[in-house]
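# nightly structure sweep
# worker-07 picked up a monomer target from the shared queue
# config: single-sequence mode, recycle default, output format = structure tokens
# input follows
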Amino acid sequence: MDESRRCIGDVHPDQGAIPAHLCALKKLTWLNLSSNQLSGPIPPELGNLAALQHVDLEDNELSGHIPPELGALGELQELRLGNNELTGPIPQELGDLRELRELWLSTNRLTGEIPALLGQLRNLQVLSLHSNTLTGSVPAHLLKLVYLVSVQLRGNKFSGPVPSVKELKDLRRAVVSSGDKCTGVTGRG
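# output follows
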């Protein structure tokens, strides 16, 4: 496979927006533009790159909403959008990412509740939503994803009972504290 069409990483566009020409690379499987001081919105057209398996846009200054079009990336295994300035709710369309193993949305300004459809991500191993302003309760079905190894939800505005994690045999890390108004005890019993 031609690496020039498959992988984009270590690109240094010297600040500014995500380069529009990337949205034309239909065979692209790996996109890493982390730590590039990128700003502005995430282009919804990234959702047209059906071959994408890994997207890392962490540690930039990206703003606006997470495009629901990213839910069309049926091969996506890893989505890293942490440490940006993203706002608004988590799109429920991300629940359509059936191959997703890692979802990193921490340290943004995301609001609203965790979408129930994220509970359909049966391959999910890492869920990092910490340091946002998410509200509501922690959905019980989310903590029934049997492959979860790490769940980080601290630093939000959750309320209500914390679901049990007894069924998560591979879980190594679950953090739902630091100011959240949740009650109950998580654990394996």
